[in-house]
Amino acid sequence: MIELKNIYRADEVKFANLFRSLRTALLEDFQRAHPDFQDGAEFKSVNYYNNPTGRNNQLYSKESAWKISAVKAFGTLKTETKKLYPTAYDLVESFGDNCFIGCYSIFEPNTILYRHTGTENRTAENIRIHIPLYVPDGDIGFEVEGEEVSWDDVFSFNNQKLHGGWNHTNERRLVFLIDLKRTICDLPTAPEWYPGMNDNVPFFEKTKDPNLSL
């Protein structure tokens, strides 16, 4: 029986070998579409969300730290991306209705992604998987309720738990993010989000919002 965890790492992730085998092609497709990616290219798909824990209605990134280029969003496959990102498109399409979201995820340099939870997955039906494509050297990482994980390999996590990231480098980080149903990943059921679920989680210094007061 698989243990219920906040984070599953490396070979704990079902399909990890598939995801690893596609890393080079996923990166090459993105770089072909965005040759100036590390030269300050602007991405218009900027995500701002209100802090879903209800704490002072804070935004979880004041610096537009996290940006996406979506192939599938909330269950809808974006057919116009087939030529732009053929590898990502085929990957997402292969999972059919078991895939809820698939996108390139860009983490801006010298920014912090303040702690938040995923409002689109309140039932915890899905697990979020990160496939690392380009990760700069230096002080960069991710945490879920204070448990740290790096982008050295594939990992998945329960995005109904408070999580955030930091990128204290001068380069953008790039991963492919895919949400799959927990059932297809052979994972145990996770509790649904409810108000106050994360209220007693201790602060984690590297992802603490300096403007947040309880």
Question: Care to describe what's here?
Answer:
The protein is α+β, with helices and mostly antiparallel strands. The chain contains 3 helices and 11 strands, in the order βααββαββββββββ. The chain has helices spanning 16-21, 23-33, 86-94, and strands spanning 7-9, 66-73, 76-77, 99-107, 111-116, 126-134, 139-144, 147-149, 155-157, 163-168, 173-181. The protein has a 7-stranded antiparallel sheet. A 4-stranded antiparallel sheet has the order 5-10-7-8, with no helix packed on it. A hairpin with a 2-residue loop joins strand 7 (139-144) and strand 8. The longest helix is centred in the N-terminal third of the chain and has 11 residues, at 23-33. It is globular. The termini are far apart.
Strand tally, please? 11
The helix content is 10-25%
How would you sum up the global shape? globular
Number of helices: 3
Percent of sequence in beta strands = 25-35%
Poorly predicted runs are 48-57
- With strands numbered from the N-terminus, the spatial order across the biggest sheet is 1-9-6-11-4-2-3
The termini sit apart by 39 Å
Structural class: alpha+beta
Report the major sheet: 7 strands, antiparallel
